[in-house]
Design a protein that fits this description.
Number of domains of chain B: 1
Number of helices of chain A: 16
CATH superfamily of chain B: NADH-ubiquinone/plastoquinone oxidoreductase chain 6, subunit NuoJ
Structural class of chain A: alpha+beta
Number of strands of chain B: 0
Helix content of chain A: 40-55%
Chains: A alpha+beta (420), B mainly alpha (169), C alpha/beta (210), D mainly alpha (397)
Largest sheet of chain B: none
Oligomer: heterotetramer
Shape of chain A: globular
Shape of chain B: globular
Largest interface: A-D, 50 and 41 residues
Largest sheet of chain A: 3 strands, antiparallel
Strand content of chain A: 5-15%
CATH class of chain B: Mainly Alpha
CATH topology of chain B: Four Helix Bundle (Hemerythrin (Met), subunit A)
Number of helices of chain B: 6
Chain lengths: 420, 169, 210, 397
């Protein structure tokens, strides 16, 4: 897909943008089917089931956009029967920042800082996904050392995201912020490393097409090694505090069950999908970057409830630590960026590309169409938060409002990515 | 009759009137709470601490809350804004006069109603317990049984029948 | 007391004060040391706001860790993040729901001016078009230290406020409004696009003045 | 020693003595009332400071430290601010009910605090039915919560107040019953008598507190759980569950009215702690005979601070339960346990005059064993972990 095809740019563009007449397409051409694997019956989703006859009076509550546990500006219009949810309608767009439209007005390099602000917990993962898409588009090679740096930064980002998520989830359950404080203690350590590397705590803007912006500062690897070596102790601490906690178990077991069929049909990805027991991790499926060089396992849940989603995060953090240790051991010397890449006036050839990575929240993809100019003709993001959120009503129906809050918390959304 | 009693009596009567006359059901219920509290403090004024505490615990803590709950669960339709007074006013007045007259008659024609005025602080709690547990134990148990049956009945009425459940979608 | 005499006395080590001065001190001291923020985050900056309340930066030292989720109990609105045109009326409404005295901190480039998303059709170009902002904190996002600095700046502002005379703060002036009109969703933009009382509309360098 | 112990009693008598005879009763009442309001309001200020500092300790941070030494003046600043704040009554709210609610949330709690003895001869009112009076005042608080929720005309307020009332009614049952277990053992409802019944020492050293008996220990633990729920503390703080229903019935209150609710809440906490101390921990009595030289009121307030620290610790560590789990716990675990505690007490009293060898041990086995077995059985029934079993996770290579 990334290679320019052999018909001319205008026709290709027309096809890609859907401006082509339907009869021009060849319907008889053989279609390449995806390789056989586990198949799931398509389950028709009842769009809005009729509200059952209530026992008492229905109460309509608007949760958000300003509410302590909607993780930003997100609204759920909830219809309650007593405390039970009979209907839940999400309302988006309170943080719609015209990301994709701005992306089409800006140069390829100029878009990189915008991707930081997409999922503002994981700016480095977003950078990588975007860089991957552009590299596919332009056919660029990434030096060995840069690949290692990318893996290290992405896995550190995963640690930041997952530990903060566990903290926020427990905060939604009402722990007065103690686990959140512990998570942010670790986050600060990792952010210090990011700051030393990129100059910014949150909005790193570090990856470039064909490599990374600058080489590692002296002593950085040792700093990261210390963080990574101490991280399992933090996970143990969290687990001792939480995993066996009676109240946590009572609150999360059997709450917000996501059946695997529904998860697949709705396009859910990331830890939420794996909590439902489906083995799908882009690091294993695509083996993008250099992930095929590392030994790590993909944890899978059995019930698909909130507790499994919580445990997925904990277990994935342990696997990330393993990847980090291997990467920190093997990282070679060398250049960090392809010297032939001209970032300033970057002009990819005509074509289209879809680059995707396993972001902490799921499959994060960038779809780019180039018309040969300095700006992308079409710039589209596949946001994992948004797509994982589509099953919210199915998970919440029948539970109480208090459950909806933690189900939403365990989906792990960031509104910058949902609304874009 | 002391000044305290006068204040308490006025308070109780006014609150009771409010319970009847106020338009909003919740206001009426809260006014009833006020009347019950007034009665409770009258007991306290008479030195009957235990009866005071039980009056508050049972009537304010339980009965009033129950009324409030019922009002909340059946909120709306047709109750809001209507007076709770008995509709043919003459009937209500008649009942009220009958009850008041009966009470006055009972008090006045009691052989030694002056002697029945309780002395302050004379209500020994132990004595109350002994009387309840010896002389009136059968009556007490009977009331307990009755209340239990009533509660079971209420639970049975409130219990959702399996066939009336809405079909799972 | 005559300010000249007061000054003269203080030079000799005699400090004088008046009841009014004491009242002013107490009034401002209570307000400044108990700034409870509204638990309210809009976008990226909210994460740094949370980070400021976490262990390393600990906004609690200034008595400001009581993040109240209800606007009725909050004193300080930290507008942390991009205000979109869909969200702006709600931000103004939340401000209106807060009881006086109330303060606004605009945290981050987006809340000040729209920041990197300024060209977007759905992004409000600064919350000070609708609300009287006390402290602006630049940055994208500002570091938690910057937020703490902003908080201290606000405390200093409060400390210096008079409670009598013409320089009274807004909430003590009888004519000043404590509620601002909530914009509606218009056909192309918010209606009105700005509140002339807080945004007088100075001409901007490039002639853009919307 | 005795002078220090009776310092406040003598002080009050001296002040009362200055007044002419017919005034004395009135002055005495005023002094007692002022002392209760003053002391507990001061304690409220210190408690908010302890809470904020304690949470800070748990969470690796300093907590308030800018105003006064160690941030001690922080409650003063908060109080000043609350006084200054504008008082908002929502347009659609019921003005009268909305305004009365915070007052009604505080007054009964203060009345309830009046019956708790804080030292030797230091009790404002020694009611014959003090225990029942305390619980009755707790019942009035429910009305205040309802008035706050209903008067604010807000869906969240109403939800919060309904939750709060349901929770308080459910936990009042075990609370009252575990209190009555003590009343049964002592044979009096007066709190002064209950403390009197805990006089003396086992072997001349260990105090004869109720908590050192099997039924008393069980009763104390049950009372503690029910009191936590009644005082709306974590893990039972659903009525104001911030992440779900924002601030519950207090949602629409600003400024001083909100501060009053807060005051009521904390005073309720003191009341519950004070009652637990009185019923099970010997009130103002020393735990060991050799510590008797410490004044009695110091013992009471020392124990009270220990309770406050315990509640802060709970708040810093536990998540909150869900409403239906809360109810389930109240009705399926607490209530049967409390009823069994009555039986355990009966066994203990019935065997009081046994003359078998090792009678003390056998009494413990009989009475304590009953509670322990019941605990094991009921806990198995109610525990979520036992119900679902352990989880195993697969790993894909």
């Amino acid at each position: 897909m990334s290679k320019p095809l052999d018909f001319d740019a205008a026709e290709q563009l027309a096809m890609a943008t859907g401006d082509v007449e339907p009869e021009q397409l060849d319907h008889d051409a053989p279609v390449s089917l995806p390789p056989p694997g586990p198949r799931y019956e398509a389950v028709p989703r009842a769009a809005s089931p009729a509200i059952p006859e209530p026992e008492g009076e229905l109460l309509e509550v608007s949760v958000g956009p300003h509410h302590p546990s909607t993780h930003g500006v997100f609204r759920m219009n909830v219809v309650l029967d007593g405390e039970k949810i009979v209907q839940l309608k999400p309302v988006f767009g309170y943080l719609h920042r015209n990301h994709e439209k701005l992306g089409e007005q800006t140069t390829y390099l100029g878009n990189m800082p915008y991707t930081d602000r997409l999922d503002y917990f994981c700016s480095l993962s977003n950078n990588w996904a975007y860089a991957l898409a552009v590299e596919k588009l332009a056919g660029l090679k990434v030096p060995e050392r840069a690949e290692y740096i990318r893996v290290i930064t992405a896995e550190l980002t995963r640690l930041v995201n997952h530990s903060s998520l566990v903290g926020f989830l427990l905060h939604d359950m009402g722990t007065m912020g103690t686990p959140l404080m512990y998570a942010f203690r670790e986050r600060e350590k990792i952010l210090d490393a990011f700051e030393a590397l990129t100059g910014a705590r949150m909005m790193c803007n570090y990856h470039r097409f064909g490599g990374c912006r600058v080489d590692l500062p002296p002593g950085w690897l040792d700093q990261v090694r210390t963080i990574v070596d101490n991280f399992p102790r933090f996970i143990d601490e969290m687990e001792r505090l939480l995993s066996e906690n009676e109240v946590l178990i009572a609150r999360t077991h059997g709450v917000g069950v996501l059946p695997p069929e529904l998860a697949v049909n709705a396009g859910v990805t990331g830890p939420s999908l794996r909590a439902s027991g489906i083995n799908y991790d882009l690091r294993k499926v695509d083996r993008y970057g250099i992930y095929d060089r590392f030994q790590f396992r993909v944890p899978l849940g059995e019930k698909g409830d909130v507790y499994d989603r919580y445990m997925m995060r904990i277990l994935e953090m342990r696997e990330s630590v393993k990847i980090l240790q291997q990467a920190l051991r093997d990282i070679p010397e060398g250049p960090v960026i392809d010297p032939k890449v001209r970032l300033r006036n970057f002009t990819p050839p005509v074509g289209e590309a879809y680059g995707r990575i396993e972001a902490p929240k799921g499959e994060l993809g960038f779809y780019l169409i180039s018309d040969g100019s300095k700006k992308p003709y079409r710039y589209r993001i596949r946001p994992p938060s948004f797509i994982n959120l589509t099953v919210l009503e199915d998970m919440c129906r029948g539970h109480t409002l208090a459950d909806a809050v933690i189900i939403l918390g365990a989906v792990d959304i960031v509104l910058g990515e949902v609304d874009r | 009759m002391s000044a305290t009693f006068a204040i308490l009596a006025t308070w109780t009567v006014l609150a009771a009137l409010g319970a009847m006359a106020l338009r909003k059901p919740v206001h009426a219920a809260l006014s009833l709470v006020g009347a019950l509290m007034g009665v409770a403090f009258t007991y306290l004024n008479l030195g009957a601490e235990f009866i005071t505490a039980v009056q508050v615990l049972v009537y304010v803590g339980a009965v009033a809350i129950l009324i409030v709950f019922v009002l909340q669960l059946t909120r709306g339709e047709g109750v809001e804004g209507e007076s709770l007074a008995v509709q043919p006013a003459s009937l209500g007045l008649g009942i009220a006069l009958l009850v008041t007259g009966g009470l006055i008659a009972a008090v006045v024609f009691l052989p030694d109603w002056r002697a029945a005025w309780p002395e302050k602080g004379d209500v020994a709690l132990k004595r109350l317990g002994e009387v309840l547990m010896n002389r009136y134990v059968v009556a007490l148990e009977a009331i307990g049984l009755l209340l239990t049956i009533a509660m079971i009945g209420a639970v049975l009425i409130a219990l959702k029948r399996p066939d009336s459940q809405p079909p799972e979608s | 007391m005559d300010p000249g005499l007061q000054n003269e006395l203080s030079k000799r080590g005699i400090f004088t004060t008046t009841w009014q001065e004491l009242l002013r001190f107490g009034y401002n001291w209570g307000r400044k040391n108990s700034l409870w923020p509204l638990n309210f985050g809009l976008a990226c900056c909210a994460i740094e706001m949370i980070a400021a309340s976490m262990a390393r930066f600990d906004i609690a030292r200034f008595g400001a860790e009581v993040f109240r989720p209800s606007p009725r109990q909050a004193d300080l609105m930290i507008v942390a993040g991009t205000v979109t045109k869909k969200m702006a009326p709600l931000v103004v409404r939340l401000y209106n729901q807060m009881p006086e005295p109330k303060y606004v901190i605009a945290m981050g480039a987006c809340a000040i001016s729209g920041g990197p998303f300024k060209q977007g059709y759905n992004v409000l170009k600064g919350i000070d078009r609708f609300l009287p902002v006390d402290v602006h904190i630049p940055g994208c996002p500002p570091r938690p230290e910057a937020l703490l600095h902003g908080l201290i700046t606000l405390q200093k502002l409060i400390e210096a406020q008079e409670i009598h005379g013409p320089n009274k703060p807004r909430h003590l002036q009888e004519t000043a409004p404590n509620e601002y009109p909530i914009p509606r969703y218009g056909r192309f933009d918010l209606d009105p696009p700005k509140n002339p009382e807080v945004w007088p509309g100075r001409p901007l360098p490039r002639g853009e003045n919307k | 020693m005795n002078a220090l112990d009776q310092l406040f009693v003598n002080l009050k008598q001296a002040i009362v003595g200055w007044f002419p005879g017919e005034w004395r009763l009135g002055v005495s009442v005023v002094i007692s009332a002022a002392a209760i309001v003053g002391v507990y309001a001061g304690l409220f200020a210190i408690t908010t400071w302890i809470e904020r500092k304690g949470l800070g300790r748990i969470q690796n941070r300093p907590g308030p430290n800018r105003v006064g030494p160690f941030g001690l003046l922080q409650p003063l600043a908060d109080g000043l601010k609350a006084l200054i704040k504008e008082d908002i009554i929502p347009q659609r709210a019921d003005r009268l009910v909305h305004t009365l609610a915070p007052i009604l949330a505080v007054v009964p709690v203060i009345l309830a605090l009046a019956v708790i003895p804080v030292g030797r001869n230091m009790v404002a009112v020694d009611l014959q039915a003090g225990l029942i009076f305390f619980f009755a005042m707790g019942g009035v608080k429910e009305i205040a919560v309802f008035m706050a929720g209903w008067g604010s005309r807000n869906a969240y307020s109403l939800l919060g107040s309904m939750r709060a009332i349901a929770q308080m009614i459910s936990y009042e049952m075990p609370l009252v019953l575990s209190g009555l277990v003590v009343a049964m053992a002592v044979g009096s409802l007066s709190l002064v008598d209950i403390i009197e019944a805990q006089a003396g020492y086992y072997g001349g050293v260990l105090a004869r507190w109720h908590v050192f008996t099997p039924w008393g220990l069980a009763g104390f633990l049950l009372f503690l759980v029910a009191a936590t729920a009644e005082a709306n503390r974590t893990p039972f703080d659903l009525p104001e569950g911030e992440s779900e229903i924002i601030a519950g019935h207090m949602l629409e209150y600003s400024g001083f009215k909100y501060a009053l609710f807060f005051l009521g809440e904390y005073m309720g906490l003191f009341g519950m702690s004070g009652l637990a101390i009185t019923l099970f921990l010997g009130g103002w009595r020393a735990p060991f005979s050799f510590l008797e030289w410490i004044p009695s009121w110091m013992w009471f307030f020392g124990k009270l601070f220990a309770f406050i620290a315990f509640f802060v610790w709970l708040r810093g560590t536990l998540p909150r339960l869900r409403a239906d789990q809360l109810m389930e716990f109240a009705w399926k675990f607490m209530l049967p346990m409390v009823l069994l505690d009555v039986v355990a007490l009966a066994l203990w009293q019935y065997t009081a005059h046994w003359s078998v060898p090792l009678a003390g041990l056998w009494r413990w086995v009989l009475s304590g064993g009953l509670m322990f077995v019941a605990y094991l059985g009921l806990a198995r029934l109610i525990s979520p972990r036992r119900r679902v079993g352990p989880r195993t996770y697969r790993f894909a290579e």
